[in-house]
Specification:
CATH class of the largest domain in chain A: Mainly Alpha
Number of helices of chain B: 25
Helix content of chain B: 25-40%
Order of helices and strands of chain A: HHHHHHHHHHHH
Shape of chain A: globular
Structural class of chain A: mainly alpha
CATH architecture of the largest domain in chain A: Up-down Bundle
CATH topology of the largest domain in chain A: Cytochrome Bc1 Complex, Chain C
Oligomer: heterodimer
Radius of gyration of chain B: 31 Å
Radius of gyration of chain A: 19 Å
Structural class of chain B: alpha+beta
Largest sheet of chain B: 6 strands, mixed
Strand content of chain A: under 5%
Distance between the termini of chain A: 51 Å
CATH superfamily of the largest domain in chain A: Cytochrome Bc1 Complex, Chain C
Number of helices of chain A: 12
């Protein structure tokens, strides 16, 4: 299990614990999932196979824990000024954990195959396609050819987006497996929340419901309603670049980068609220 | 001794609560999961896990085991729990606001759904336009307002309000909880016609769904207003308490009715959809203004005489819907077999020459020992009904009758209601189909009695057609500031009371009703025709209360269409001048009718062998 992490990196270690919970519960779900009948398969997991819904809930909340603990760890490191202690190359690669965690959760959302997922898939394809020169190829690489269904996404979710965060976590934390405390904490927390809060799939019929993306992307969904489609990749790319640049920026430059990041977060939260309020109205 | 970490204890308790909750949820999930099949039509369809009783399937082409439930009812066919499965459920498949995702989804009936949405049974354009014009709100009886717009109007005008409360419950945009009693409990949109009434009273039994539409589907709506469905079956509606020869019968909804001669087609087992083509009832994709523009079937299409352009080989007929109908009925037309066409070139899909029928399917010979040259296949009974062709005899070749439509002579009777008073009662309360709720105010329709008898003759375009009192009414539109409306409009109609025998010559040529004068006495003496109304109007007293037009009017009276009017003075004169001759010359084959003008001149000039001292006025044209 390796040595216990320093207290200042508690959330970093916890993120690895959540990653482990997510990966193991995901492995349990793989035999039950069929990308060609995605929504039917998810509904079967949810209602047709004894106990499978709990495994799915643990998977979902484990992934959420991974994202949150990663963000909190990042914030702690930045606030405490520990960025300089991380080698620049490792910092940049670790920065990628943020979009990878997002991508992992987003692809998990797409794999539901319900009306919201299919709508998000179309939006995602549009956003990727708006990247100059490489957009179409990028969309095909990440989401598969148009009309290919969810098979390519499932492969990326179970393969690419499992291997990559683990490798980056190993490099960043210099350990392959979480310490016992993090592992048990992540597992118990995921079971506690997953047992109490059901994770229901979205609507089957897009025409009969208001379609929303995952909560952590509502800010981006809100922006896309008001701003050009390229906003969908420019804003996240700017945020990742900003975090990466923290390894280089000093003094006023650092303040400027922090301001930009704070602006992105504020805009994200603002558009989230706006979208939800508009929906409620 | 090592102290147990408090955070771990909290987490263990939380996880225990989570697992306990999960345990309860798992038990409920297992109890709620049906045990029926979870596949239908080659795909996952979990509705059947719970809805697995045989009578929960409509059967036929729409059987649940063949296509599942979701294609018609939407919802979530993959969910296991009831709440999620029923999210977005359409309880009334075919209703027009979701028809594009149910009956009209791609691969099913998208073409038909699009046409129905523009058909008059969905839009009600003619109904709305005429009503608003009659009540003085628009300059003419043509308009584009449809029921969707009418029902959504936030502040309806008196006529719109009138329509919303009395008329809007009987069209295809309605739902079961906001629909007139006449169609309630059957289906919505497509289902209004294609969902056959439940045979079983089992609560969850599914209504059968069928392409074939029996007459009782039409009866619900078309037993009102012109009442063609009632007339077709030989029923004339009565006012409550009104006497009827032979006693009254009760209609399906409790209204009293008298027995009257049924349409000969009805007597022979011909159903509504045996005549009315797919374009007649489901539209042709064009938002027509009035019913007569949408209906393509004509008497001549089946019975002739057929113009050259109205009969052509099937190879030249380009109508994919008709071809689909033939394929669905497993019947084949050879390329050179003749096809009969209704107006606008719509083929009469079920009519064919008897020589092209299999011998065992040919209708039996008639009383004259001859087999009818054409037959139509009954939609609902599958029988071949013989179709006699209009003979080229004097009755049908009379020079003076060139403009007569078939129905002007062969309609035995038509319903009449000439004493209608409509008023708005602010103190009442009545269902508003626009609001889907009871609203303040009430439209009250009152009439003294309903009648029936030989119809009046009208002119529509260049044809003589039957007409009935369509809008002979007074309307008190209520406050504020709405002046009472009085109208005297007749409506052209095919009464659907066709008889093989035609009405008598005198029933037109010596009838005040036929001429549009109303009930009364026609005196055809030497001084010229004179009419004495049975119930005089207050102004002018020479006219009848139930009349449409005066005798020998300065101008014809208007109808409920721009191209409909009463007979004008010359047409009345030409009709009446035959009357004095009818007591002796009863047959149209009589020599005097070959050239009636010449016969009259000869009579008046003394050049005739006829000893009848004819009144001089018959010489005027």
């Amino acid at each position: 299990m390796g040595e216990r992490p320093a207290d200042g990196h508690r959330y970093g270690a916890l993120s690895l614990g959540f990653l482990a919970v997510t990966v193991l519960s995901g492995v349990a779900l793989v035999p039950l999932y069929r990308p060609e009948e995605a929504h039917a398969a998810v509904e079967a997991i949810q209602g047709g196979i004894p106990g499978a819904w709990l495994v799915r809930a643990v998977h979902a909340f484990g992934a959420l824990g991974f994202l949150l603990s990663t963000v909190i760890h990042l914030a702690q490191v930045v606030v405490r000024g520990d960025v300089a202690r991380v080698p620049v190359g490792v910092w940049w690669r670790s920065t990628l954990l943020l979009p990878i965690a997002y991508a992992g959760m987003l692809t998990g959302f797409l794999l539901r195959g319900d009306a919201e997922a299919l709508a998000a898939m179309a939006v995602g394809r549009g956003v990727l396609g708006s990247v100059p020169w490489i957009g179409e190829g990028l969309a095909t690489l990440l989401l598969g050819p148009q009309g290919a269904g969810l098979g390519p996404v499932a492969l990326h979710h179970a393969g690419t987006l499992t291997v990559l965060p683990w490798l980056l976590s190993i490099e960043h934390g210099r350990r392959a497996w979480p310490d016992l405390r993090s592992w048990v904490t992540a597992l118990l927390a995921s079971i506690a929340i997953g047992g109490i809060v059901p994770v229901t799939p979205g609507p089957a019929d897009g025409a009969a419901a208001r379609l929303l993306g995952p909560w952590y992307l509502l800010g981006l969904q809100g922006m896309l309603l008001d701003l050009p489609v390229a906003t969908g990749w420019i804003v996240p790319a700017a945020a990742v670049l900003g975090v990466g640049m923290l390894a280089h920026a000093r003094g006023r430059a650092r303040t400027a980068v922090m301001t930009v990041l704070a602006g992105v977060v504020a805009a994200w939260v603002g558009w989230t609220v706006r979208l939800l309020v508009a929906g409620a109205g | 001794m090592t102290r147990f970490p408090r955070p771990l204890a909290v987490l263990l308790v939380a996880a225990g609560v989570g697992l306990g909750t999960a345990w309860v949820r798992e038990a409920r999930r297992d109890d709620a999961t049906g045990r029926g099949p979870d596949r239908a039509g080659g795909r996952t369809e979990r509705c059947l896990t719970c809805h697995d009783r045989p009578d929960e399937s409509p059967g036929g082409a729409h059987a649940a085991e063949a296509i599942g439930c979701e294609p018609c009812h939407l919802g979530n066919p993959w969910a296991f729990d009831k709440e999620r499965a029923h999210a977005g459920l359409e309880r009334e498949p075919g209703v027009l606001d979701t028809v594009g995702r149910t009956c009209g989804r791609e691969g099913c009936h998208a073409r038909e759904a699009g046409r129905v949405a523009t058909s008059l049974m969905a839009t009600g354009r003619g109904l709305i336009a005429v009503d608003r014009w009659v009540l003085g709100e628009t300059p003419g009886p043509d308009g584009t307002e449809d029921f969707a717009a009418l029902l959504a109007t936030p502040r309806p005008t008196p006529a719109q309000d009138h329509l919303r409360r009395l008329c809007a419950g009987c069209h295809l945009q309605t739902r079961g909880d906001n629909r007139d009693d006449a169609v309630r409990g059957i289906g919505s949109g497509c289902g209004s016609c294609h969902a056959t009434r439940k045979a079983s009273l089992t609560i969850r039994a599914h209504v059968p769904v069928d392409a074939k539409v029996p007459d009782d589907r039409c009866l619900g709506c078309h037993s009102r207003s012109g009442r063609i469905s009632l007339s077709y079956a030989g029923l004339a509606e009565l006012k409550a308490g009104q006497d009827a020869p032979g006693g009254a019968v009760r209609l399906f909804d409790g209204r009293p009715a008298a027995r009257a001669p049924a349409d000969v087609h009805h007597e022979r087992g011909v159903g509504c959809t045996d005549c009315h083509l797919h374009t007649d009832v489901m539209g042709d994709g064009i938002a027509h203004a009035h019913q007569e523009q949408q209906v393509a079937i004509t008497c001549e299409a089946c019975h002739g005489p057929v113009q050259e352009q109205d009969e052509r080989p099937w190879a030249t007929v380009d109508d994919p819907i008709t071809r689909d109908l033939l394929r669905m009925r497993a019947t084949v037309r050879t390329p050179l077999e003749p096809a009969r066409l209704g107006s606008r070139g719509v083929p009469v899909w079920n009519a064919r020459p008897t020589v092209d029928l299999p011998i065992e399917a040919r209708p039996a010979a008639g009383a004259d020992g001859r087999t009818a040259p054409w037959a139509i296949q009954g939609e609902t009974d599958g029988r071949e009904h013989p179709v006699r062709q209009t003979p080229a005899d004097p009755d049908h070749r009379l020079a003076g009758h060139r403009r007569l439509s078939c129905s002007s002579c062969h309609s035995a009777w038509a319903p009449t209601c000439t004493s209608c008073h409509t008023r708005f009662a602010p103190e009442g309360r009545q269902w508003d189909f626009g609001l889907g709720a009871v609203a303040d105010g009430e439209w009250v329709e009152e009439s003294e009695r309903f009648g029936w008898g030989p119809p009046t003759l009208a002119v529509q375009g260049d044809r003589i057609v039957p007409a009935i009192p369509g809008m002979v009414l007074t309307a008190d539109l209520g406050p504020p500031n709405h002046a009472p409306v009085s109208r005297r409009l007749y409506a052209a109609i095919d009464p659907h009371t066709t008889r093989k025998e035609s009405r008598s010559c005198a029933s037109c040529h010596a009838s005040s009703t036929a001429l549009g004068l109303g009930t009364g006495t026609l005196d055809l003496g030497d001084d010229g025709p004179r009419f004495t109304p049975a119930e005089p109007r207050s102004d002018p007293p020479a006219d009848a209360r139930d009349g449409w037009v005066s005798l020998v009017p300065e101008a014809p009276a208007p109808g409920t269409r721009t191209d409909v009017r009463s007979l004008d003075a010359p047409e009345q004169r030409r009709t009446l001048r035959v009357a004095p001759c009818l007591p002796c010359h009863t047959k149209s084959a009589d020599a005097i009718y070959r050239d009636f003008d010449r016969s009259v001149r000869a009579l008046l000039d003394g050049g005739s062998r006829c000893t009848f001292e004819a009144p001089r006025w018959i010489g005027a044209r």
